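Quick check before the chapter quiz. The format below is the same one you will see on the exam, so make sure you can read both the input and the output lines.
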Amino acid sequence: MTDQTDFPIIRRTRHESSTRRNLTISRVEQLTPHMIRIVAEGPELAGFVSGAPDDHLKVFVAQADGSQSMRDYTPRRHDQVAGTLTVDFFDHEGGPASDWARAAKVGDTLSIGGPRGSQVIEGPIAHWVMVGDETALPAIGRRVEELSAGVRATVIGAVPGAADEQELTSAATLDARWVHREAAAATDPAPLLAALAEVTLAPHTFVWIAAEAAVARRLREYLVDERGLDKRWIKAAGYWVAGQADSSAKDLSGD
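Here is the expected output.
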């Protein structure tokens, strides 16, 4: 019988979800041509908790008609000492949060809620493989930064071009592989599949995937059906669903 300690576990924790925080933007940076970084601070950040790199918070954006939109974003970095929260926004046309981030300036208000909870991945992981599109880069960047020495990390990131590649830093042994394709082709799994096929899946390799839902599902199927990877060594999520605004499939483990 296989000992369950031989496999990773996902430890789920709940956080206070009723708090809505209004923070003040202290810095706006065009990180790459398609990524805007916003750093915010303020007394209402007190008590903020984000326990995992792929947590999600809600960003509230007022619309011209008086209504309000909510979109999920990753807490890219929470610096408790400095009292700041960093959120990266994928800059694309037609998204209310992207439009807001593009116009944001120092002194404006960033209104957030959550995260409602965290899923912390624990276990005997020697090699992290992280695969994702632009929407996954904040979570990937945060996880890479939080890894410790003694483990390996392979990143496969899909971006429109070389200018959108991000500089990632880690205490882990890092291998960043960038896949260039137009943003309009983000629903095609082929480029990421081809890159993933080049990665050796040695024992104790955990694969984390986040992309358009159908793409993430196809990558997971490939790993299980064609590479023979045990499902317990995969976490896949659809961070967005093609053709459906504000839709996601955060957990594809049951597919």
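If your answer matched, good. The domain at 13-117 is CATH 2.40.30.10 (Elongation Factor Tu (Ef-tu); domain 3).
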